[in-house]
Structures are given as C-alpha cells and as structure tokens.
Amino acid sequence: MNGRNKVIPYPQERALEDAMFGRGLVPTRIFPLLLPVWEVEVKATVTDGRPYQLIDRYLERGIAEGGLGTRAELAGFFALDVSLVDRAVRVLGAIGHLTEHDGRLALTELGRRSQRDQVCYLIEREDRRKLYFDGFLSRPLTRPYYQASVVTLMSQPEARAATVANAYPRFGMLWTATGFRREALTELANQKDRDRYNLPTRIENPESVGEQLVHLPLYVVRATDRQRRVHHLAYSQVGDTADPELSELCELSPEINGVLNSEEIAAKPNVQETHVHNWLKGKNLGGFRPEPLADGDWRITLPANAFDPGGPVPPSKLGSYVVLSSCLLRVDCDDEETRKRTLLTRVENYLAGRSRVTAADVEARIDRVARQLRLSADMRSVREMASGDGRSGFARRLSGLLDGTLE
Q: Whole-angstrom Cα distance, residue 143 to residue 146?
C-alpha cells in the first residue's frame, strides 16, 4: 500500500477539487472502487535492429527496386564475384530477409521492413511479458500503470481485504462477467502508438499464454456540467488528475454505469441531510444550518474561528469538500480575510514544494485556488497580500517570477 497504508496516496478531496476547479464540473458523488484488470501473460518474438553491412543493403535494394532475382543477376549488376554474392544471400536467408522459389530470390516481410526503415532487423528470441487490459472492454492500460513502485494491482485476496478494511475510505469491488478478448492483442500490435501501452515496436506476434484478474484502485467522481449532463472521471495512483482513458471506460461501460447510477438513486435526500447534521454535531457545529444545493450536494458556511488552529475544521477543508457516505458537503467561510490568508498559505506551500516553477504555473495555481475560495487574485495581488502579511520570502519569490529573474 502507499503512504501510511493508504491505497491511493492522496485524499478523495483532491480528485473532487480537480473535477470542479480544474475541469469546471460540479461533483455530486465520489466512489472508491476496485477496477477489474486483465493481467495477460504474453509470449512474442523480439525483433532487434543493427546497421546493415554495405553489400547486404545493396543486394536487398537490388531485389526490391531493381527486379534482380538471381545470384548471377545481382553479381552482374553490382560487378561482384558470384561466390561473394552467394555467401551474402545465404546470410540474408538465414536471418529471415530472403526466400527463394523456383530459383528466384524475394524479400520477406522482415526484409521489406528492413529496407523501408534502413535497419537490418533480426528476430532473435522469444519474449515473455505481462500486459494489462481493463476487465470490461479489454482496452490496454497505458505505460504509467506498469510502474510497480507507484501502482498497486491487487490480487483477488488483496482486493477482497480492501473492501472490508477498517481504513477509510473503504473500496467497493466492481465485478466483470466478460472474458478477455484475445483479439485485443492483435489490435494493440497494429496501433501506431503501441509503445504508449508498453508494447514496443520490436515486440511482434504477441500471443496470450494465460490471463488472470487483478484489481486497480480508483476514485470515480460523478459530476455534472452546465447542461446537467452526467460525467464520470477516474483518478488512480498514477496522479491526482483524471485519467482520460479510464474516465472514458467509466462512461462507456454499461456495467460500471449501472453500479454508479444505482448508488446515486439509492442516495435519499433525507439520509444525506442526516449524514450532514451528524458530521456538524461531531464537530460541535450543530448550530449551523447546512444548505442543500441544486446539483445534489450540500454547503455549510462557517465563521472564521471554525478554522482557527486547533479549531473544529482544518483550514485545508475551506473551499473544498467533506466526503460523507452518500453525499458531498462543500465547506465555505463568510470571512474574506480568512479566505485570503488561506489563499496565501496554499500558494506559499505550492511554491515551497517546487525548486523550479514557471510564472505561468503559479498564475494557474493562484487562479484555481482563488476560485475555490471565492476570491479574485493574480500573482501581483498575491505578492502584495504576502508583503502585507509579513511573508517577505514568499513575496520576494513572486517578485522574481514576475520580473523573470527567478524560476
């Protein structure tokens, strides 16, 4: 597991913030899920390349472009000794570049590809590797999911344990009744961008020798756009921005859609309100009234002292979400100065964690955090606020970014 036994090393709120403030959608639910993934053991041939020997390249070119088909024709055209041509032809036949039929030489597919790329390709050995495909549509996972130090692909017992663990959040299991489509290997091998899916071009003729299901932890955010259309965004251990291909899978798969929609239908407003009130009471904030929002989640507006050090609500929740079992609660504050100090702290922490950053990066971060906190700000105004708040080092770094003397 990652970071203090967390399955995904960042909180659910990070995914919600990306959906709302990074993508302009309105989150209504978040689901921690275990996505079934086909782990496919593949055998394939490995094609390696080397520079051509000069005579070999020209002999193949003579066959491909000049219509030369015998040793004598090649020797005559290139003014070479027939015995030398014969030795070269034998070598090219042995490495799979030439065939001979009725006394005529012809290039194989490997020979034609070698001529096209001007690389002498050799089929040298058998390769064994694992490839990963989603468990519903048999689409390949991208290369980042092969980073064992980052991504946890759980065995069946590990996945079952994650669904009953005491740790929060508890993950729900997605089940698939769809077997692995073996045609997916051929489809992948024919893709021009196959290296993006961990199948380099030199790996050929992939063939499955066995498949088993493993499970990939995801946060799936259900959100709506301005036209009230529903979207599902998938977030994984790879990073805290939505994975476009896994998000598309969640949109296209009837099985995943069915599970998410049934969960949404089961979320009754009166039950949601009870969860919100219970959370407020647990924070000794029972006197504050939550507000139901049109998109289906809730908002609570709290005074400045609720976010004081040692107070009931950590400042990290301001402008963000509390994830409850059947709904989301947005946390706001009616004090502008508190929101401004929170803006300063978040941007300062963002800079402190990066040795190199561009002015454009910082402007984008300020814009996003300011929108979370219902503020209007840019780098110049944040620099002035930092100076006024006594954060001189922070203000100097912003000045350096503004005048181009610092990155």
A: 6
Query: Which of 108, 136, 101, 138 lies closest to 123, judged by CA?
Result: 108
Residue 323 belongs to domain with CATH number = 3.30.70
Which pLDDT does position 2 carry in this prediction? 41
| H or E element at residue 287 | none
Residues 143, 196: contact at Cβ < 8 Å? Answer: yes
The boundaries of the domain holding residue 243 are 12-44+127-266
What is the tens place of the pLDDT at every residue in 345-357? 999 999 988 878 8
Q: How far is CA 243 from CA 10, 167, 220, 248, in A?
A: 15, 25, 10, 9
Q: Is residue 2 part of a domain?
A: no
Q: Is 398 exposed, middle or buried (0-12, 13-18, 19+ CB in 10 A)?
A: buried
In whole angstroms, what is the distance from residue 5 CA to residue 126 CA?
Answer: 38
Identify the residue whose tokens are 């994975």: 243
* 4 within domain boundaries: no
Q: Is 82's pLDDT higher than 70?
A: yes
Q: Distance between CA atoms of 110 and 357, rounded to whole angstroms?
A: 47
Residue reference for tokens 């756009």: 225
Rounded Cα–Cα distance for residues 275 and 226 (Å): 27
- How many domains does the chain contain in total? 4
Question: Most confidently modeled of 83-92, 153-162, 185-194, 244-253?
Answer: 244-253
Would 63 be classed as within a structural domain?
A: yes
> 207 by DSSP, 3-state: which?
strand
CB atoms within 10 A of CB 213: 16
Q: Are 247 and 235 in contact (CB under 8 A)?
A: no
Domain stops at, among 249, 266, 283: 266
- Beta bridge partners, 13, equal none
Facing residues of 224 across strands?
A: 26, 230
Does one domain contain both 160 and 195?
A: yes
* Neighbour-count burial of 208, counting CB atoms closer than 10 A to its CB (0-12 exposed, 13-18 middle, 19+ buried): middle
d(CA 142, CA 154): 17
Choose the final residue of a domain: 251, 266, 281.
266
User: So what's the pLDDT on residue 140?
Assistant: 97
Alpha-carbon torsion (273, 279, 282, 288), positive or negative: negative
DSSP letter for 224, please. E
